[in-house]
Amino acid sequence: MAALKYAGLDDTDSEDELPPGWEERSTKDGWLYYANHVEEKTQWEHPKTGKRKRVVGDLPYGWEQETDENGHIYFVDHLNKRTTYLDPRLAFTVDDNPLKPSSRQKYDGNTTAMDILQGCGLTGKVAIVTGANSGIGFETARSLALHGAHVVLACRNIARANEATGKILEEWQKAKVEAMILDLSSLRSVQQFAKAFKAKNLYTDIKNASGKLDFNLLSPLKREYWSMLAYNRSKLCNILFSNELNRRLSPHGVTSNALHPGNMMYSALHQSWWVYTVLFTLARPFTKSMQQGAATTIYCATAPELEGLGGMYFNNCCRCSPSQQAQSEVTAVALWELSERLVQERIGRQAQ
């Protein structure tokens, strides 16, 4: 069942396996206790590890907590029309021992977007995902939608965007997904998209936008142009812009983080030169899948521990330090001002 899979109930943890005759239960406020049916007693500590634990996070999408006539807590899975006394969040318990923090990283390069969202309900959240008709963008949109978020697939090709929404609805017919046209290379299209989205009266919770920098050479002479250098400069600009966006908007409750999805992932970049095609083909067995590539985006967008935090750079769901140039506040401000000037010049020409 999809809901059980996303809730993590198909996974087991041998370290926390209970001895025969024991049962794991939870209180209304999420604390776990253990019932010994042989000796007819209960205790807070795990009988094997001695740890105290509690469940964290919201119930998975489609689940609801109820209490029966005897005062016992049970859980209703509305998607699959079943009830259980087993808390679906038990797969995601945390130790109640703040004095001994774990040094182990929770996620890594093998983590998928679905792994990040296990046990997470996104009902009421609204997300705009650009480039969502394929690749990492599609997996990002799909993962958010399958966990209850209202997802807008913003793409320049509306036909392909509609195909993508159809695929998600085939997987779960109650998913809240819609396609809207957005060509980020056209300021007119951006303006039209903004007006159309504002008319929907949806508050947006999540927005995803997929070398040495010399602002005078952002568009270098043709004879000096090298596609990979231009690509690297664009990624540096992404980080700088994200940092400055966060600096300007965080006082108003809007945060921005930059991230790296993974190296040599199979994308349209390889189409620019046959050498890239060969390199990407050779590297493909050793690189991330699109689901894995979407994991860090999903983590930055939904992790409770990042609530209200921005201006950071992430790789493999872990905060990292980018290059010194990417951390330059002076360069970030200069890029912002250049961007404003270019937009104003373009708008001025269109008005004429």
TrEMBL record:
Its main location: Golgi. One of its GO terms (molecular function) is oxidoreductase activity. Residues 16-49, 57-90 form the WW domain. Pfam families: adh_short (PF00106), WW (PF00397). One of its GO terms (biological process) is Wnt signaling pathway. The keyword Membrane does not apply. PANTHER family: RETINOL DEHYDROGENASE (PTHR24320), WW DOMAIN-CONTAINING OXIDOREDUCTASE (PTHR24320:SF282). Belongs to the short-chain dehydrogenases/reductases (SDR) family. This is WW domain-containing oxidoreductase. The gene is WWOX.
